[in-house]
Amino acid sequence: MGCMCAKSEPLSSASNGGLGIQNKVYDGPKPVLYYLSASPPCRSVLVTARQIGLDLDIRTVNILAGEHLAEDFVKLNPEHTIPTLDDGGFVLWESRAICTYLVTKYAARDDLYPKDEKKRAMVDRRLYFDATTLYGAIISLTKPIIMRVETQATEAKKKPVLDALQQLEKYLADSAWVAGDSLTVADTVIVASVASAQAIGVDLAQYPNIAGWFERCKTQLRGFQENAEGAAMYGQFVQSLLGAPAFP
């Protein structure tokens, strides 16, 4: 799974993608993101950074080649996981923490991660849903295949993915975005999980609310195409190991 990283868009004070999100003017060194294109958590960070117009120094770490176990990287992140962010010596891992940190520090407005306690709590709720339920189910299914521990996608492993998508479908029944009526960091994160589910064979047509939201993401999220390309790599790799899509 190689890297497919498009050129970053520089941070500026211009409005973002027609959404009215203003970016802080920042002249410091670029935050460094240790990254792999096929990784859904890495892609969620990339989409979030793109959405606020933040230029990142992207450095590929190929975990299948063991690069995350290199001495320098383990010194940086003892848990040797990606994505890892190094922002001027402040090192952070766990993708959702990175996303909310970047928005809090670099976005001039709070559209993506509201300061209002109730709105922020709803965004956090969706982020936790992704971590534990949606992405949690996807990685539970695919990681043993990627690590060559399992050779098939069992119904027992596939059902939680479909159940999680059905729950997301319900969330989107009453709002245009996953945490309410406005696009938030919950969308920039969950779009990576949904793209990955689609890439391993899930037919989004079964979920009309998700499909409609995904189309809105396509037109309103910066980095959507990069996410799609990385998801395709993820799906192709899983399919190459299974000999067929996980959800034929």
Automatic annotation (TrEMBL):
Pfam families: GST_C (PF00043), GST_N_3 (PF13417). Residues 29-110 form the GST N-terminal domain. Residues 116-237 form the GST C-terminal domain. GO terms for biological process: glutathione metabolic process. PROSITE patterns: GST_CTER, GST_NTER. InterPro entries: Glutathione-S-Trfase_C-like, Glutathione-S-Trfase_C_sf, Glutathione_S-Trfase, Glutathione_S-Trfase_N, GST_C, Thioredoxin-like_sf. It comes from the Eukaryota. Coiled coil: none annotated. One of its GO terms (molecular function) is glutathione transferase activity. Homodimer. This is Glutathione S-transferase 1-1-like.
